[in-house]
Design brief:
Blueprint (H helix, E strand, L loop, with lengths): L8 H14 L4 E8 L2 E6 L4 H8 L17 E5 L7 E3 L3 E9 L2 E6 L8 E3 L4 E4 L4 E6 L4 E9 L12 E4 L5
Amino acid sequence: MNFSAETEKTAVFEAVEKVITDLGFNIDKQDQSRPWGGFFVLDESQAPKFIETYFPHLSVNDFGVGRKLSPKILVVAPNKRLSWQYHFRRAEIWKVIGGVAGVVTSETDEENELQTLSLGTIINLKQGERHRLIGLDGWGIIAEIWQHTDPENPSDEDDIVRVQDDFGR
């Protein structure tokens, strides 16, 4: 999956959806409305298959038996930035599965240098670690899995602390 900056958003989403479904995954939710691109949330029951497909160096047992893993595919538009953010109740693991992307990380609110993530790169983000995913010259496609750090109160979309956001959220 390699899409130039000129590829229309709908075409990118259609192609990514086809890859996901051809691999046998069920899509629970799709969101193309994000100003930075969007995402696909996959069926939670397929998290073991998702890990096997995109993170073969890991096992579902690495995450704790019975824990929610929230498998997602992020689609990041060229030259767009997600918010500078962190989470109280989760860590995240990302893998670039299409195109390239950039990431900035830090232990504090101060942003560090941009790192380019090429195809196949895996990055582990700790709970509380500040991070920002960035689209570079083309569309970036990222597999994401959450590591919920509070089993009694799993993370969700409300567990986003935005330090800075290009879109005023």
